[in-house]
Amino acid sequence: MRILLVNYRYFVSGGPERYMFNIKKALEQDGHEVIPFSIHSNKNVETEYSRYFVEPIGDRDATYFEECKKTPRVIWQMLSRSIYSLEVKKAIQKQIKDVKPDLVYIIHFVNKLSPSVIRGAKQLGVPVVLRLSDYFLLCPRFDFLYNKKVCEDCLKKGYSECVKRRCVKNSLFASVIRVFSMQFHKWIRIYKDVDAFITPSVFLKNKLVDNGFPAEKIIYIPTFTEIDGDKNEPTIGQYGLYFGRITEEKGVDTVVKAYEKLPKYQVKIMGDDTTEEASRLKAYIEEKDIDNIEFVGFQQGDELENIINNSRFVIIPSIWYDNLPNTALEAFRNAKPVIASNIGSLPELVEDGVNGYLFATGNEEDLVEKIKLLEEDDAVLDKGINAKKILEEKFSKERHIRTLIQVFEKVIGL
After folding, report:
1. Count of alpha carbons within 13 Å of 296, Cβ hemisphere only?
2. What is the pTM assigned to this prediction?
3. I want to staple 337 with a disulfide (CB 3.0 to 4.6 A). Which of 52, 65, 369, 383 is the partner?
């Protein structure tokens, strides 16, 4: 099977990209040909297919729109990519005509490629499968957050609530554009062109069904991670660990406040520590003279594995409807218990008292109590062993690939 894999980045920036490279490798090992379509960036992994990639909004060094100089060209690119880009549609259709894929598998396109990738494929008769990693089909902000609390008012009262509150980047302009784009996509019925939606969590599937998306098109396939039976044996580390994006919705401030109350315990925070939220938290730590919290920056490869392996447990403190984060699976792979917020898909991952603990979302006092439950080495080992067992049972690569290929064969008509 020849698969055109679409994502708005071709380098690791977060969970969607980790999944993209993992699924590409897994599908290729299974005998399929996987061809990327993306956006040019100086950070990209090299590929012979980059000649089909489209130019980014701004220059090739920029990852986020905020990094771009707001020239008329950049503003126009931002508008077209948010709403419907003929440039992107033309580019993907050229690649489809040249490489003749059996189907298009889309990971992420919002605001960077535009849903024209969907219609571009369908107009050439190529089936489209869309994987969802957040709530962009339902929420203008993608995360159902307002003032650090879950909010579903747009679903109940209409998208005008987003404009009134300037939910998107606290900007009236950005909020209007995002709401207009969602309404436009609904008007042109763009998502009717999707043959199948893949959701990593039951929680997300249920949200879509509850809001009018056809249940028969939505397939729950949890994310996977590689499992090496000879490695990642349970160990007892010395510190708690948070790793991932350091942004508001991830709730890292709950970890900081919890460890402020636990001066004899150590925690490491791993991820890009140049974000606005990271800067705010580091300033708070300095102001309060807290010395048991260490930011270790973004890590990958062996250093990432070493930091996870030497931890005692992993904390996932999200305050949004987190959608089966890869960090949990990476923790389980290293036989680490997870302490997670009781929100979104996280209860699908963490069985309270079995492979970790759930705590009340945003409640540092409850998090403190759950951290103390893992004081004993035996408790850490037992729950770490359970974590790895659950990973092998529910989140294996083999199960993921088998189910995904069944979806692909169905939409192709095999």
Report:
1. 20
2. 0.89
3. 383
- Give the pairing type, strands 293-297 and 267-270: parallel
For residue 247, give the nearest of 414, 13, 413 by alpha carbon.
13
Determine whether domain 239-394 maps to CATH 3.40.50.2000. Answer: yes
Beta carbons of 88 and 54 less than 8 angstroms apart: yes
Query: In the structure encoding, which two tokens stand for residue 167, read together?
Result: 């939910």
Over residues 367-384, the pLDDT tens digits come to 999 999 999 999 999 999
Report the CATH architecture of 2-133+195-224+397-412. Answer: 3-Layer(aba) Sandwich (3.40)
The two three-digit tokens of residue 391, written as one number: 């990973």
Strands 149-150 and 145-146, bridge-based pairing: antiparallel
User: Distance of alpha carbon 41 from its chain centroid, rounded?
Assistant: 20
Are the C-beta atoms of 383 and 328 separated by less than 8 Å?
no
- C-alpha neighbours within 13 Å on the C-beta side of residue 317: 30
Q: Would you say 222 and 345 are in contact if contact means Cβ atoms under 8 Å apart?
A: no
Report whether 85 contacts 39 (CB < 8 A).
no
SS3 at position 273: coil
Cα angle value 305/24/42 (rounded, 5°): 75
Contacts of 100 (CB under 8 A, 6+ apart): 2
Give the other-Cβ count within 10 Å of 255's Cβ. Answer: 24
Residue ranges of domains in the chain = 2-133+195-224+397-412, 239-394
Backbone angles phi and psi of 6, in degrees to 5: -110, 125
Amino acid at 90: K
Note the pLDDT tens digit of each residue in 67-78. 666 678 778 888
Of 386, 236, 378, residue with least CA distance to 311: 236
Instruction: Give the separation between CA 412 and CA 414, rounded to whole angstroms.
Output: 6
